[in-house]
Structures are given as structure tokens and as C-alpha cells.
User: What shape does this take?
Amino acid sequence: MVQHILVLASFLFSIGFMIIIVKRNAIMVLLGIELMLNASNLNLVAFNLFYPSHPDGQLFALFVIIVAVCEAAVGLAIILRVYHYYQTSVPDEINTLKD
Amino acid sequence: MMLIIYFFIGLAFLSALGILFIRNVFHGALLLLVCLMSIAGLYILLFAEFIAITQILIYAGGILVVIVFGIMLTSKLAGKPLIVTNNKWFAGSIISVPLVYLLVNFIYQKNFVQALSAKPPDTQWNSINLVGINFMTDYLLPFEVAGILLLMALIGAAVTASFKKNELLK
Assistant: This one.
């Protein structure tokens, strides 16, 4: 059972990586990052099943969730600013530092 | 029990693949919600109830709402769905496919399978109680630092996304 969870986590990680590279929209890149963070969380919780008296893996998963929340909030604020400045949310078209 | 686990695994995998192939950003966000909820179901089946509840609260209640706000604020023409195009399929697959091959190959190595099956998982323990005790004893400093980090992210996001007066007049 744990092996299948690990296989799912590796698939989710790779799909998230592919979304980050393939999609031409900054919000889709954020979705891919969320998917990769969830894959790592799934690994932590699955391995914590072997050490029931020490929930270290679950606590690490909770801290990863906290960091994911901060990343989503700040990332979306930056995307909004960049969109209002450049009138685009395609990461490839944003290639100047200052006007 | 095993049937429910495989149902959630298949649901998470299919919805993640759907995010990769779909072109509408809003539908992508909804598919991400399906994927995260099925992962929360897997957490419950892995005896991590607190993380499952946190996942549902934070991802469905927080991150998805923020992402939908972001989609609505960055679509150029109101009323039209935001369609994205895919490119660089070759670059994406040349990194992702070997990565997933290596990871799955490692998971099914002989020693690793033996190590996983040697110690069957326990099912009788109260995880929420243990998580609370550990947060207030061993992990107290990371807990406080996480609170400060959340406050900093809140202030930073509000300052970054707000508009100054002279920019509105411009």
C-alpha cells in the first residue's frame, strides 16, 4: 500500500514539474508548484506510518503546508503587480528589469 | 479499505493529468481542488487526520479562493475565459519522464520493497493528540517562527498588491 502512495507522489511531482515548464501562464505555474509541494507532503505522511509514536513526518507536512500558503499569497500578489505593469501574465514575455 | 485507497489514488492521478492537458485556467484550478481533496482522503486513510483537516481548510478555503481571485483579476477581457497555450512539450517531457522513471524504479528496488514490507504499519494510535503535544514541546520554536512567517507574508502580500494614488491617476 505504501509503495502505491509513493508511486502516486512521484507521478504528482513529475506532473507538477511538467506543468511549470509547459504552461504559458504564471497562475498555472503556481498550480504546478502546489502540486509538487503536495507530492512531498504525501511522502512525509506515508513514511510517518512506520513510526507511529513520533509524528515528525506529520509535523513537517504541516510546516510545508504553512510555507505553501505564504508562497501562494505572495506569489499571487507579485503576479497581480506584474500584470498591471506589463499587461501580460506570460512569464516568457517579461524580460526587462526596468523601463 | 484498499478499494477506497485505490479510488483516491486514481482520482488524484487523473485530475493532475487533467491540469496538464486542460487549456482553461479556471477549470485547471477546479481540477487542482479535486486532486487536493483526494489527497486529503488519502491522509485520512494513512491515519493523519489533523493534516487531512488542515488540507481541506487551507487549500479549499484559502489557496483556491486566492487563486480564483487571481484568475479573475488577470483576465484581460471580462466575461471571457482565460485560455492558455502550451509550449515546450519536448523540454518538459525530457525532464519529467526520466524523473518519474527513476523515482518509480527506485521505489520498486528489491531492498526498498523489503524494507517497506518488513515493518507493518501500526493502526492504533491517536495522532491528533501526539501532534498537539509535539507542537507545544519539541517543535515550539518552529511553530512560533511559522506564525511570524505567516504575519510577514500577510503584510508583504497586502503591500505588494495595493495601489498607490498617483498610479491610479496616471
User: Anything to note?
Assistant: Chain A touches chain B through 66 residues (CB under 8 Å). Residues 45 and 59 of chain A are 9 Å apart (CA to CA). DSSP finds three helices and no strands in chain A.
